[in-house]
Amino acid sequence: MSNPPPAKEQPKRGKRHPLLYHQRLNEQYFWPAVLIVSLSAALLIWGPEKLAPYRFFLTVAASSCGLVLVLTLVYRLRAYAVCTIHGLRVQLPFYRLDISYEEIKAVRPTELFRLFPPSKQRWPQRRFLTPLFGNTVLSIELERLPHRTAWLRLWMSRYMLAPDRVGVVLAVRDWLSFRAELDESITRYRKSRI
Questions:
Q1: What is the mean pLDDT of residues 118-136?
Q2: Least buried of 18, 21, 81, 172, by fewest C-beta within 10 Å?
Q3: pTM for this structure?
Q4: How many CB atoms lie within 10 A of CB 67?
């Protein structure tokens, strides 16, 4: 007599969904920073006499742009949303926000430009968000935020906090897959609490 197959174990963590704001930040600064670092390093190595008085400034330019390059890469790699057993985790470069499934009231897809109309954004923000305005984002309505809004704004972009209700706005590339995974995780969690 054969044993029945073991019950499928619930995954502890779902797929990581990179956050688009942080990817956009990396894309915006990556090539200019690479160009400045390369040019400054080349001039420092070549070392023509005419540039001798400017060696310090070339070193500062190469170092600071190298730091920008590393930071934007960290931002890109460490910023994602993932479903866990107990809640939604929003991992930011230097902060982690855990939202319990109990706190989630509704998950709605919408376009970014509907939440943050381009005409109401200042020029730098509009320029930064232009490639993202047409993207569908998930507006996650919550019973309450896990922390005060002022505290969250220290770590999160203002475009990650819902402007019209209590909640967060997550922009990920494959929003359809992320929404399905989030809905499934919420349902599974609520069934386990009955």
A1: 93
A2: 18
A3: 0.78
A4: 12
